[in-house]
Specification:
The protein is of the alpha/beta class and 472 residues long. The chain has one domain: Amidase signature (AS) domain (Amidase signature (AS) enzymes), CATH 3.90.1300.10. Helices cover 39% and strands 14% of the residues. It contains 15 helices and 13 strands. The protein has an eleven-stranded mixed beta sheet, sandwiched between helices. The chain has a two-stranded antiparallel sheet with strand order 10-11. Helix 8 links the parallel strand 7 and strand 8. Helix 2 runs antiparallel to helix 3.
Length: 472
């Protein structure tokens, strides 16, 4: 039952073929068994979840679309009375005084909250480790990361320890974990704000600046992604209904900032292109010149610096900078100076960065105008081995800088604010998932969700890892 979709669990509960208590007990037993291997959860609410499930089973009226379905939420979301530390020692003892509106929407829809999932310190990494929580491991290979910062949630989904996950994304934090764990993920059009119950900004500090932040779901199926999006947000009609893939105009961004994906990702892109073209879609190349790509990455780094710096004292900002400086110096992205400007919290730098961002968004919109969606890599390769020192990552026999491997193809769309769908493209020769991303027009999530459904009908689906001989 652990790989049933949330949609199927909800339907079985509605038909009285399954109880919420039975589903919750199943997941709690599985968490107890497998979580020590993967460290996907950092808080498990066993007693509260069972009480919640019992109440769902007794409720006969006003049942929501997730009635009785056990789910997980990323540790950074406020849930009254529970911890939200961001794996950051100064917040070790913090307990939420309120509940995130997004979490409340899931609860109001009938969901049962199993617990909170693992995150890296301050959500600022493409892997999941830190001083407070154990390192999260990838169910496809525990020597590797499930990604970050929604790494724990992705691991929980891939290991069958939850049915849905509420994640967030400012630099690939939904999309990289989805790619590394073979999941469906949606980074909506930029939607993060100071009142959505996501931390950062740090709780109770009444800070309102939000830029490039996105909240969104991860799931094992296209149906569940659409269901979660419907519950969490106000769906809109697609700008172009998509009954079939025939005639869909797909741009292919095969290189960005001079960085070509590795063979596993190129094979995934080729499989996806063949599927699309066989179904009648029209695939054409997209090019972003090197100068424009450099401007995009510099602007993203500066705005990311502002976003995280507003929560931190000057000494902590310096510690943060020096922690990542070796990886930044090793990278081809040339983002050290922009990041330092962002960490300075200089208001004139901030307004100039926003001015530059508006120009860059306009240029990408013009570049993408002929296409309905644009397909690209998510990361340069599959999940990499644990790498707490941010050293170079081996890719097809070459050592690639850490920042280059993880961030360019995802940071591009945090900068532009576009919605992005990530879908599994199958496994690499070494048995690791590879996720492909599709960027849409602003506020056209509906088209991306339709695309996910159509791709699913053509065989794009989650592949479960082999955890052990007794894990079925």
């Amino acid at each position: 039952m652990h790989y049933l979709s949330a949609s199927d669990i909800a339907a079985a509960i509605a038909r009285h073929e399954l109880t919420s208590v039975a589903a919750t007990e199943h997941y709690l037993a599985r968490i107890e068994r497998f979580n020590p291997q993967f460290n996907a959860y950092v808080q498990v609410y066993a007693e509260q979840a069972l009480q919640q499930a019992q109440a769902r089973d007794q409720q006969q009226q006003q049942r929501g679309p997730l009635h009785g379905v056990p789910i997980s939420i990323k540790e950074c979301y406020l849930l009254a009375g529970t911890g939200t530390s961001l794996n950051y020692p100064p917040l070790k003892n913090y307990r939420g005084q309120t509940t995130s509106p997004l979490v409340q929407r899931l609860i109001d829809a009938g969901a049962v909250i199993l617990g909170k999932t693992n995150v890296p310190q301050l959500l600022a990494d493409s892997q999941t480790f830190g001083p407070l929580y154990p390192t999260a491991n990838n169910p496809f290979d525990p020597r590797r990361t499930p990604g970050g910062s929604t790494g724990g949630g992705a691991a929980a989904l891939a290991a069958g320890l939850t049915s849905l996950e509420l994640g967030s994304d400012i630099g690939g934090s939904i999309r990289n974990p989805s790619s590394y764990c073979g999941l469906f993920g949606l980074k909506p059009t930029e939607n993060g704000h100071a009142h959505d119950g996501h931390v950062p900004p740090l709780p109770e500090q009444r800070l309102g600046m939000s830029v490039m932040n996105c909240t969104g779901p991860l799931a094992r199926s296209a149906d569940d992604l659409a269901l979660a999006y419907q519950v969490l947000y106000q769906p809109t009609a697609p700008t172009q209904p998509l009954p079939t893939l025939k005639g869909l105009r797909v741009g292919l961004l095969s290189s960005f900032h001079g960085l070509l994906p590795g063979q596993a990702v190129q094979h995934g892109l080729a499989r996806m292109q063949q599927l699309l073209e066989n179904a009648g879609a029209l695939v054409a190349p997209v090019n972003i010149d090197q100068h424009l790509a450099q401007r995009i990455m510099a602007n993203w780094a500066e705005l990311f610096g502002f976003s995280i710096a507003q929560n931190l004292s000057w000494p902590i900002r310096q510690v943060f900078y020096w922690k990542f400086r070796p990886a930044l110096r090793d990278s081809s992205l040339q983002v050290i100076a922009p990041l330092k400007r962002g960490l300075s919290l200089n208001f004139k730098h901030y307004t100039r960065a926003l001015y530059e961002r508006a120009e860059l968004i306009n240029e990408i919109q013009h570049c993408y105008q002929p296409h309905d969606v644009v397909m690209s890599a998510t990361a340069l390769g599959p999940a990499f081995e644990h790498n707490h020192q941010h050293r170079r990552i081996q890719l097809d026999g070459t050592a690639v800088p850490y920042m280059d491997y993880c961030f360019p193809y995802v940071a591009l769309y945090n900068l532009t604010g576009q919605p992005v769908l990530t879908v599994p493209s199958g496994l690499s020769d070494s048995g690791l998932p590879v996720g492909i991303s599709f960027a849409g027009r602003h506020h056209d999530e509906a088209l991306l969700l339709q695309l996910a459904q159509l791709l699913s009908e053509h065989g794009v689906q989650f592949t479960a890892p082999e955890l052990s001989s007794a894990s079925s």
